[in-house]
Design a protein that fits this description.
Elements: E1 9-14, H1 20-31, H2 36-46, H3 58-63, E2 68-69, E3 76-77, E4 80-83, E5 90-102, H4 106-114, E6 127-139, E7 145-155, E8 172-175, H5 187-191, H6 195-208, E9 212-220, E10 223-230, E11 234-237, H7 243-258, E12 262-265, H8 277-290, E13 294-298, H9 302-311, E14 319-325, E15 330-335, H10 336-345
Parallel strand pairs: 1-13, 1-14, 8-12, 12-13
Antiparallel strand pairs: 2-3, 4-5, 5-6, 6-7, 9-10, 10-11, 14-15
């Protein structure tokens, strides 16, 4: 699938299982392909129950990120191929996966010594895992490019993923549809917001509850959390407030990571009432422009489409919609004027 003539705000629409979320996953992997923690984060996001209990192993989730073809005897995982032009220094990424048996490297073994695992006698005492091979091409000074080739191994049941230092990481933040339920973990990112950004967040929060007087970071047992001061019932933790406010908090704090890069919003309307969507979208357009952020968002909601259209009225050239089709693997581009004709003048169902 190819996306041409992207805008600052790119809205992905289409039926269920048409690949909208997969596009966001591809963008996230593309921006920092060599960091295994990012691959693990993308894979685990599909396994939404993993925050409570482990339904599937990390390795299973990683393998199923790759194209899968049923064969006569066994399934084979294909390769991932991504490429782009633009400000991101990454130009091309190719990835393939295969099962391996072996031993973690020395640094991993030092971690494992603290939390020993049972080796598999059937494999000669070695660990079972998967190996992801990554070949990437990055832009360097001027018009020159440099090729990199790395291999990352993920061991079955290893309780950690070590980050690898990567000087080529491109800023990217992914805000998933369900993550607002864990908004208490935003305290660290909230503390990094500028004063005017914190003020914007407070005004957005008051759309959901006019009694909110302030939001600040507090600490309990050395763990930071967000504290809300309310005019009616005083100090309260964030957990007592509604999903819409938590969702907006996640989006705003995502700006810290996404500055000068990409902000990925899955199910942009999730948790937010249609009544406040236009104001939030208007703010989001402004924030993206001020922080040099390119947005990719998915939605199933006509109210969300209409809210984004209304917010893009002042800068129509920055907004593009792509309708994904599972049948023909095409992304049909709809600019502001065409989408306005279809929705506002024609009242058509465009999802």
């Amino acid at each position: 699938m190819t996306f041409e003539r992207l805008g600052r705000f790119n809205l992905l629409i289409g039926g269920n299982n048409s690949g909208k979320t997969s596009v966001l996953e591809a963008l996230q992997a593309f921006c920092n392909p060599e960091d295994p923690a990012d691959w693990a984060r993308i894979a685990n996001a599909r396994n939404t129950s993993s925050r409570l209990f482990s339904t599937h192993s990390l390795n299973d989730c990683l393998v199923w990120m790759f194209p899968y073809t049923k064969q006569t005897d066994t399934g084979s995982s294909g390769s991932i191929q991504l490429s782009s032009t633009g400000a991101c220094p990454v130009r091309e990424v190719k990835a393939s996966v295969q099962p391996v048996f072996g031993m973690p490297d020395e640094e991993d073994l030092r971690y494992l010594a603290k939390r020993p695992l049972d080796s598999n006698p059937a494999t000669g005492g070695t660990y079972e895992g998967i190996e992801i091979k990554l070949d990437s091409i990055r832009a360097q000074d001027g018009s020159s490019t440099v090729a990199e080739s790395v291999t990352r191994r993920f061991w079955q049941d290893v309780p950690f993923i070590r980050r690898r230092a990567n000087s080529f990481a491109f800023p990217v933040a992914a805000v998933l549809g369900f993550e607002y339920r864990f908004a208490e973990r935003c305290a660290d990112k909230y503390s990094k917001l500028k004063v005017d950004q914190q003020k914007d967040l407070l005004e957005l929060a008051r759309m959901f509850d006019s009694g909110i007087e302030s939001i600040s970071v507090a600490s309990e047992n050395r763990r930071p959390y967000l504290r809300v001061e309310h005019k009616d019932f005083g100090e309260a933790p964030l957990m007592v407030f509604g999903d819409g406010m938590k969702r907006v908090l996640f989006i705003v704090t995502g700006l810290v990571t996404a500055k000068n890069g990409l902000l990925l919003l899955d199910e942009i309307e999730s948790g937010i009432h249609a009544f406040v969507l236009p104001e939030i979208m208007k703010w989001l357009f402004k924030a993206a422009r001020e922080n040099h952020i390119q947005i990719f968002a998915t939605t199933h909601s006509l109210e969300a489409v209409d809210a984004v259209l209304l917010s893009a009225k002042e800068t129509p050239d920055e907004f593009v919609t792509y309708r994904l089709s599972k049948e023909d693997h095409l992304a049909k581009r709809l600019n502001y004027n065409l989408l306005t004709d279809l929705r506002v003048h024609g009242g058509l169902e465009i999802r």
